[in-house]
């Protein structure tokens, strides 16, 4: 019987084999991590683009809806619409104000009851973003009390905080050669009333959806989106100030005796007394037949003896 050598080392993996296995597993895990990271970046980018594709048109739809309800009845042309051209930190931040028939969006109460107003002062303005110097914030202004200063005061509703530009081009007339003006309806401006059409451009930048979002932009152009909207205003709003309807109570006029007698003569066909043509004879009995211009009675046709 052959004796067993207990000093012989047990069989197992060598150090090289263990290191090679760890190297292969590290490569697999690194590939999976890169794949998951790329998928997350794509998801976040698509989400941000979708959000801005909805946010940009939604803001422009809100502006267009307010402009479609533009209200000028009993208002002078100076108070029809105001458009100011301004620049802050090198970014366009124009402002527009007017009166609209759009119902109020801000919740208002009267005697603890929510109320809806048919007429409101509306406007859109921007201010610098307090957290990021390279962005602007856009707000919608609303005031339910229509006063002599329709382009100021009111409640401001936040719309977006990563605005790169808000530019409004105003055109006084139609045609391919029409040129835009920078100011409209402002103090000292010669352009008042209602313009022919507007072109509004809104530039937004993609915002991170999460605090630790992993998103990479190949170029700066891919991080910003510019939305444009052309709004043509109705032709019947562009009228002269003398033709704008103004509510008024007609002045009362005193009737003279001649007016009264003339009115009675005109209504004499149904008067009483004297057997006036077309009227009633004495005693209130209606006279039959009619009379010609000379006063000769014309007997009624039919019903009499032949």
Q: What is the H/E string?
A: HEEEEEEEEEEEEHEE
What structural class should be given to the helix and strand makeup? alpha+beta
Q: What is the tally of beta strands?
A: 14
Mean pLDDT across residues: 77
The DSSP helix count reads: 2
Instruction: Name the shape in a single word.
Output: elongated
Biggest pleated sheet: 8 strands, antiparallel
Distance between the termini: 169 Å
Low-confidence stretches: 210-221, 269-288, 301-306
Please tell me how large the radius of gyration is: 41 Å
Strand portion: 25-35%
Q: Give the fraction of residues assigned to helices.
A: 10-25%
In short:
Helices cover 21% and strands 25% of the residues. It is of the alpha+beta class.
Q: How would you describe what is shown here?
A:
This protein is 21% helix and 25% strand. It is α+β, with helices and mostly antiparallel strands and 306 residues long. It has a domain at 52-239. The strands form 4 sheets. Strands 1, 4, 7, 8, 9, 10, 11 and 12 form an 8-stranded antiparallel sheet that branches. The chain has a two-stranded antiparallel sheet with strand order 2-3. Strands 5-6 form a two-stranded antiparallel ribbon. A hairpin with a 5-residue loop joins strand 13 (290-291) and strand 14. The longest helix has 54 residues, at 15-68. The chain is elongated, with a radius of gyration of 41 Å. The termini are far apart. The model is unreliable at 210-221, 269-288 and 301-306 (pLDDT under 50).
Keywords, separated by commas or semicolons:
two-stranded antiparallel ribbon, disordered C terminus, 25% strand, 306 residues, 14 strands, alpha+beta
């Amino acid at each position: 019987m052959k004796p067993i050598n207990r000093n012989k080392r047990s069989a197992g993996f060598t150090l090289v084999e263990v290191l090679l296995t760890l190297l292969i597993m590290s490569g697999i895990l690194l590939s999976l991590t890169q794949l998951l990271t790329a998928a997350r970046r794509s998801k976040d980018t698509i989400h941000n683009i979708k959000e801005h594709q909805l946010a940009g048109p939604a803001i422009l739809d809100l502006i267009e809806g307010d402009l479609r309800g533009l209200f000028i009845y009993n208002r002078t042309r100076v108070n029809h619409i105001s458009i100011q051209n301004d620049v802050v930190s090198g970014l366009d931040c124009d402002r527009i104000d007017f009166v609209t028939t759009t119902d109020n969006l801000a919740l208002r109460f009267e005697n603890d009851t929510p109320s809806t107003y048919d007429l409101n002062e509306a406007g859109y303005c921007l201010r610098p973003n307090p957290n990021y110097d390279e962005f602007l914030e856009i707000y919608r202004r609303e005031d339910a009390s229509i006063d002599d200063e329709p382009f100021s005061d009111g409640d401001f509703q936040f719309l977006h905080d990563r605005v790169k530009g808000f530019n409004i081009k105003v055109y006084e007339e139609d045609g391919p050669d029409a040129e835009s003006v920078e100011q409209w309806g402002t103090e000292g401006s010669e352009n008042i009333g209602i313009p022919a059409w507007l072109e509004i451009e809104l530039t937004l930048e993609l915002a991170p959806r999460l605090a630790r979002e992993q998103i990479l932009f190949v170029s700066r152009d891919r991080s910003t989106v510019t939305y444009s909207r052309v709004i043509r205003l109705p032709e019947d709003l562009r009228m002269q100030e003398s033709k704008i309807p103004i509510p008024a109570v007609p002045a009362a006029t005193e009737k003279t005796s001649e007016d009264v007698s003339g009115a009675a003569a005109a209504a004499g066909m149904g008067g009483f007394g004297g057997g006036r043509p077309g009227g009633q004879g004495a005693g209130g009995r209606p006279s039959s037949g009619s009379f010609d211009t000379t006063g000769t009675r014309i007997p009624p046709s039919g019903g009499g003896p032949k």
